[in-house]
Amino acid sequence: MRILLLGATGFLGRHAAGQLRALRGARVLDGGRTPGSAVPCDLATADPERLADALRTAAPDAVVNCAGATAGSPAVLAAVNARGPAVLCEALRAAAPGARLVHLGSAAEYGPAPAPHSLTESDPAAPLGLYGATKLAGTLAVTGSGLDALVLRVFNPLGPGAPDGSLAGRLVRGIADAGPEGTVRTGDLSAHRDFVDARDAARAVVLAVTAPEPVTGVLNIGSGTARTAREVAEGLSGAAGFHGRIAEDGAGSPRSAALPWQQADITAAGRVLGWKPSYAFGTTLADLWAAR
């Protein structure tokens, strides 16, 4: 099986790459802006016809799109998260209509939900910010493409290699800098989120790629449990042997205030892919700290 992986250098992409390369009989082709990529392309600016030509040469059986932007200007977010998947689908229809597409979406595509509601794939998608809106546009491009295409709507990924700009990355850096008895200053940590291990999300990618029958639409990939950001801080403190103080001095982000609760219903992923999370929350945080 020839698998084209886009976004292999990102947080989720790196985990997906490792598990896809472990598949027996799989050949994973990297696609992107990195020099030496098997399929050189930047979905944000790619010409659909030229990308189609590259896809014909690569002849993938499956394409996994982990490429995405979580920050940047409105133009960057729109180009990467909305235009990118649309261009990819157009090129696939022209060059490799039989290839399976697995695209990573985001829980930010959903809007607010009251506690203790678990979001299902049929709940309204009403994102609060531009990031979520552009990710939703990408999801709609994929689900409306007519291809053998599936969106894995990943909730809040944690685990080894978490980026510095993420909540977990900032906490790891703050704890390391503070020393065992110091103080780590953060914003408000009361918002509830569904944290899922990045390695579990990568396993969902593998299951989607290798599913024997076409799978289309959207599947939630989360833990099924809402936890506060404060629990992430406490878990990392325990893993680090940190006995200092976590000081919630700031008000936190406007999005956290507007979206105090988010929890995934992961029933459909279990039914369709046979997937469920396998990493315990404490294990995820311990491994994250150990890999810093």
Automatic annotation (TrEMBL):
Taxonomic superkingdom: Bacteria
Domain called NAD-dependent epimerase/dehydratase: residue spans: 3-222
Pfam families: Epimerase
Signal sequence segment: none
InterPro entries named in the record: Epimerase_deHydtase, NAD(P)-bd_dom_sf
The family this protein is said to belong to: Belongs to the NAD(P)-dependent epimerase/dehydratase family.
Protein name per UniProt: NAD-dependent epimerase/dehydratase family protein
Native source organism of the sequence: Streptomyces luteireticuli
